[in-house]
Task: structure prediction
Amino acid sequence: MVLTGAEIVIRCLQEEKVEFVFGYPGGSVLYIYDAMFKQDQFKHILVRHEQAAVHAADAYSRSSQRVGVAMVTSGPGVTNAVTGIATAYMDSIPLVVITGQVPTAYIGQDAFQECDTVGITRPCVKHNFLVKDVKDLAITIKKAFFLAKSGRPGPVLVDIPKDISNHKYEFEYPKSVSMRSYNPVIKGHTGQIKKALQLLLDAKRPMVYTGGGVILSDAAGKLTKLVKALGFPITNTLMGLGGYPATDKQFVGMLGLHGTYEANMAMQNCDVLLAIGARFDDRVIGNTAHFNEVQRKIIHIDIDPSSISKRVKVDVPIVGNVADVLDDLQKQLDAAEAKSDAKALAAWWTQIEAWRARNCLKYKPNSKVIMPQLVIEKLYQVTGGDAIITSDVGQHQMWAAQYYKFDKPRRWINSGGLGTMGFGLPAAMGAHFANPKATVACVTGEASIQMCIQELSTCKQYRLPIKIINLNNRYLGMVRQWQEMFHGNRYAESYVDALPDFVKLAEAYGHVGMHITKPQDVESAMQQAFTTHKNELVFMDFITDQTANVFPMIAAGKGLSEMILAEDL
Amino acid sequence: MRHIISILLENEAGALSRVSGLFSARAYNIESLTVAPTEDSSLSRMTIVSVGSDDVIEQITKQLNKLIEVVKVVDLSEAAHVERELMLVKVRATGKEREEMKRIADIFRGRIIDVTESTYVIELTGNNSKLDAFLETIGKALILETVRTGVCGIGRGDRILKV
Result:
């Protein structure tokens, strides 16, 4: 059938079983929006800013394992979307971003709303394409979806000049696609897996450390089974929370800059480390020289060879898809006659329990001012630990990661790599569309929320019953914390003056606003928000302690075992 | 250490900028970069000379392999190989220097490919150090202009980089 380029785009998205396209129209994508108007197989969600379109598509993907789709126009549409694309890139989230471009003949002439989209986005996409001929359109979109979700996932951008979306061509959607230059390794090397198992069984002080790769590869179940069979302690990175049930006794909490004492100490002092779908980044390992002071054998499973031995030298690299490698590892473990050293393991656990007994997450209760940690604890209780929690970036993000116990994957949605303030609210929108029956709450702060506050309007348009948990301490809290600890209490530009009345603001957008100032009201307000106002968006403005800091903490340049604990101060 | 990295990549618009962008984004060093299509016009062959520790070079090859349009990557300097670079030098060739210039070009097995009353253009191929030595021998005062292609290289014997 001969179709226009615009119709081809729509048919391709339908063939990919896309449910939602998050986007914002404009001149260069008008033909595509016109073609979209004439169909009802997928729904378009109109955001209020292109950044939010990409964040929403991103969280749709994070909370569902499907590819997220965003569509924006050329020029400012693209530049606004860049923050969202970079956010998804850093966390390896599969997205297809379709962008309009000025007509082919205008490219390079500084046309209205022209920008070098492929050039601007090149460093923050897995791959991008400029479609110069309508006959390449269908295969390019097919490739985009294939690239986005295979191998190490990531955002892929397809730039379509306006004239191409109006040219006609015979449409046929390719059934499959292969690229000679792109063949990600899926199965791990059997010999390497055997070596890894031997190391694990010989370990005296083993440790399992897993990241976002476990979530992306949908391997939480397999991981849990393996770790329970081994009886080893396990920690998750910020991106990996939910990969192993947080309420299980083998879980020692999140590790890293604001990780638990027991997780960081076990990480530092183990003799065999099994790293799965994690990349030893600076916020996890801290000072690599300090980390390397302790001799240990490291096994690293990752689908991306460039993540292996990038920051920390690895003894047994295993390149492959986490789920596939875990399957093979489990099979070899089940078949193995050797067992792990029970006596050594018991002694190791005794040590870990001693570290755990420091109770590093305890904080001073306060009867007058709301402690931010309390809000997260109550959120956990009221939602039964089963909500999808999206977060912005800062102290509130760390408290949410520390105090909300994620037992399942894809429940914790945050911008871990790029650290994008403004992510939380649009992410909650995307998570809701992917999981319309789930409870979705956005943990945020009064600074972050204002970076994408306009999306309250989108939430109204689609009646999204998101609960916004605003930890309002009138400061850029994490900036303030660093200024207090490392910059002599000089709070340069971290006090947020002239805040809006968030209750009135929520009401102005047609939502419910709540202002909570007393610790004793936290739980009842939440009950009200999550039950009475179940089907409405509730903006809960919690006025919290201004001086609360996130602990434990590893200062810049310090090592994993050099934590500052709340009790030290 | 100096490494010569050979890359086979899809001969597509933008592929070069993906490679050069990777080097600048990750703060890798490029001494020279040369690229042209191969006998199969769908593929380009690129040669990059970079300096870095083994860890850095390992990351460079891994990151290059990660680029979607890159088909194959080889570190030529890991084993026996030959490398060549082409240089064109325009020199002043007047008076007694005119004879001398010709002589030096012959010694280095260069060829004079353009002649005017006062200048020669000398074509020279060789490895890096030979070209450097030639320039040093002539001396800055007589060099009017130089242009070098950057290094290209190929593995010796059975080492073949092909799809």
Notes: The two ends of chain B are 28 Å apart (CA to CA).
